[in-house]
Design a protein that fits this description.
By secondary structure, the protein is an alpha/beta fold. Helix content is 32%, strand content 21%. The protein has 2 domains: 1-84 and 160-227, Rossmann fold, CATH 3.40.50; 90-158. It has helices at residues 49-56, 78-82, 100-110, 117-126, 142-156, 172-187, 212-218; strands at 11-17, 29-33, 38-42, 64-69, 72-73, 85-88, 160-164, 191-195, 207-211, 222-224. Helix 6 (172-187) links the parallel strand 7 (160-164) and strand 8. The longest helix is centred in the last third of the chain and has 16 residues, at 172-187.
């Protein structure tokens, strides 16, 4: 039980039910996510991971249930919620004709978080993309495109990250970099929901797990929370 003077969760789902995913997507989901915490959503393909992420990102309207942002229903002020959230889907959201640097610059502009050129160049170096800065995205490898999309998420500095299979196509070094980025984000008071077959690698004290297979098989709501 939360103390009376404790802040509300950053993100709270109450009885969220997806319109998609067949019988496995119909069990309601409840969770509370506080600042500095990560919710790892795992499960087999088709278990509803992507549908849940899309509901949290506002791209899929739930059949029932509610989503609270700092204690207030997201439906009361959707723009305020979207302005504080960054979503990475299976696709990377890149324009193939634009260079890596141009894609990063454009993504930050669309997110409302433009950055100085020096920070953009530093982000490209951090994600080992500096040698590909002028290369069109369509000529980048799958791993490079994923790293570029992740660079935009990290550099954007949104307090809530919603990441759907962010580790897809990443090599070992890039996986380590993703884990470090997640740890830094949580340490700074951010929160994240990550759907992945892999363990996120973040500290156990900061990590919750929602197993979509368990709740779908059980056929009833599963509440996830950290004491």
């Amino acid at each position: 039980m939360r103390a009376a003077d404790a802040p509300p969760p950053v993100l709270c789902a109450r009885g969220l039910v997806s319109r998609r995913g067949g019988p496995r997507g119909l069990a309601p989901v409840d969770f509370e996510l506080h600042a500095g915490q990560l919710l790892h959503v795992r499960g087999a393909n088709g278990s509803g991971k992507t549908s849940l992420l899309r509901m949290l990102a506002g791209l899929l309207r739930p059949q029932s249930g509610s989503l609270l942002w700092h204690g207030a229903d997201v439906r009361r002020d959707p723009p305020a919620y979207f302005a504080r959230m960054a979503f990475l889907a299976h696709g990377n959201g890149l324009c193939g004709e634009l260079s890596a640097a141009e894609n990063l610059r454009y993504a930050l502009h669309v997110a409302g978080t433009p950055q100085p050129e020096a920070r953009i160049a530093a982000a490209l170096r951090d994600w080992r993309l500096d040698r590909s800065a002028s290369v069109p995205a369509l000529r980048l490898s799958q791993g490079q495109r994923r790293r570029l999309a992740l660079a935009a998420i990290v550099l954007g500095g949104k307090p809530l990250w919603l990441l759907d299979e962010p580790d897809a196509g990443l090599d070992a070094a890039s996986l380590d970099q993703l884990r470090a980025a997640l740890e830094s984000h949580l340490a700074a008071g951010g929160a994240a929901v990550v759907a992945s077959h892999r363990e996120p690698g973040t500290a156990a004290a900061h990590t919750q797990t929602l197993d979509m297979d368990d709740y779908a098989d059980a056929g009833y709501a599963v509440a996830v929370g950290v004491a």
